[in-house]
Amino acid sequence: MAERMLQFVRLQQHQPDKREAQARREDFGEIYAPFATARAEEQASRCSQCGVPFCQVHCPLNNNIPDWLKLTAENRLEEAYEIAAATNTFPEVCGRVCPQDRLCEGNCVIEKGFESVTIGAVEKFITDTAWDRGWVKPPTPLRELDRSIGIIGAGPAGLAAAERLRTRGWQVTVYDRHDRVGGLMIYGIPNFKLEKDIVVRRWRQFEAGGIRFELNVEIGRDISFEELRGRHDAVLIATGVYRARDVEVPGNDLQGVVPALDFLIASNRKGLGDAVEAFDSGALNAEGKRVVVIGGGDTAMDCVRTSVRQGAASVTCLYRRDKANMPGSMREVKNAEEEGIRFAWLAAPKFFTGEQGQVTGVQAVRMHLGMPDATGRQQVVPLAGSEYTEPADLVIKALGFDPEDLPAMFNEPSLRVSRWGTLQVDHRSMMTSVPGVFAAGDIVRGASLVVWGIRDGRDAADRIELWYEARGSVPQAAE
């Protein structure tokens, strides 16, 4: 073991420098400065190189974190990148947007007494260095194969599968209904967490490696699902989940009550230089408005922090549980608090008030955490007589996402879905009820993290290869 390691006993944890809250409220730039090489090496050397690396165990990709921390501490950065990229298609994205406080860093064995190793920041440093020094290469295969895959969806799961199959020689075509590659990485996640050139350079690199993209193509409208299956030896559905969950309360149809994804897409498109009528008209623009965001996940944090940067008069996050029970990253909550967002804990909307069809407020009720339900999570119970009003000109509903009706969209009724609307697959083969059609990511798992999408896409690529090589036997479809 290198003498450089186990330095947690003498070196304190140090995250990358963070821009002052007032300064970062003024633009959409990333809030963290890059690590200097010496600081990254120093922070990597705090790793204890423990026998059972819980950071790796709790990473959905099972990244070899202790190995690339050790290599970074020894200034062997190209090797560190090779180790990081071996298990992760987008380490530069995960280093920025993963909730490390809930995953790798939250399970670091030194966390209790010495604070965790800054794993996410070192991962970002390694990969940014690799891009700067030209170590990141297109997914070029050693030999071309006469095998074709059509992938529906250019988000994390679809792109991870595309890259993995392309490096093995497959002819890969990715179809997406949007005009850019990246899915929610390009349109859902704000720039202050993930600047869009990070995603675009991967897109261009994948094209250089021979992956074909057919954009502005909606399956079932521009090309039939049957025709798509005829073009390719196999099909992977990786569409994600985009249908916003709603809150069924009076006043839901008032102007100014909008879904979170509509709001975020409009903001990201504007940042990309697109003409966005709904933004320019003010319908999806928080400037000068009293904003109330309903929800407690990372999407809600994206909405409140975007609203501040658009120049909102005030921003309040309304969440029916307390801070300790928020599903989102505590690091994101802290960033939001620093940027001036007000949190209304233990409060839920009862109805929306309005005048002349425009929302003017949220009638809310205070909540109490009661006994645990069947899942073990405490139930929320309204407190009688505790109603009050949150003034609002713009209400953003960030309550999560459900799957769209893919059998209807694709005109393929034989695609079986679960009671939640997600696609049913045989979890050993990742094949749907339609032979030769596989599915991965949120459309199977439900709304989740980028890192889980990457994991599912890579796993699906492996299963597709196994199926193709054993096509002489009859495959088992999902039941």
Descriptive key words:
19 helices; iron-sulfur; 3 domains; iron; 5-stranded parallel sheet; alpha/beta; Fumarate Reductase Iron-sulfur Protein, Chain B, domain 2; FAD/NAD(P)-binding domain; 479 residues; single chain; FAD/NAD-bd_sf
What does this structure look like?
Strand 10 (347-355) and strand 11 (358-372) form a beta hairpin. The N and C termini lie far apart (50 Å). This protein has three domains: 7-132, Fumarate Reductase Iron-sulfur Protein, Chain B, domain 2; 148-241 and 403-469, FAD/NAD(P)-binding domain (3-Layer(bba) Sandwich); 247-400, FAD/NAD(P)-binding domain. It has helices at 21-24, 37-44, 54-57, 65-73, 77-87, 91-97, 111-114, 119-132, 156-167, 184-187, 196-208, 225-231, 260-271, 277-280, 298-309, 330-338, 406-409, 442-445, 450-469; strands at residues 148-152, 171-176, 212-215, 234-237, 243-244, 257-259, 290-294, 314-318, 342-344, 347-355, 358-372, 378-382, 388-391, 394-397, 401-402, 437-439. The strands form four sheets. A five-stranded parallel sheet has the order 3-2-1-4-16, sandwiched between helices. Strands 6-14-7-8-9 form a five-stranded parallel sheet. Strands 10, 11, 12 and 13 form a four-stranded antiparallel sheet that branches. By secondary structure, the chain is α/β, with parallel strands linked by helices. InterPro entries: DPD_II, FAD/NAD-bd_sf, FAD/NAD-binding_dom, GltD-like, Helical_ferredxn. This is NAD(P)-dependent oxidoreductase. Residues 149-470 form the FAD/NAD(P)-binding domain. Keywords: 4Fe-4S, Iron, Iron-sulfur, Metal-binding, Oxidoreductase. It comes from Roseomonas elaeocarpi.
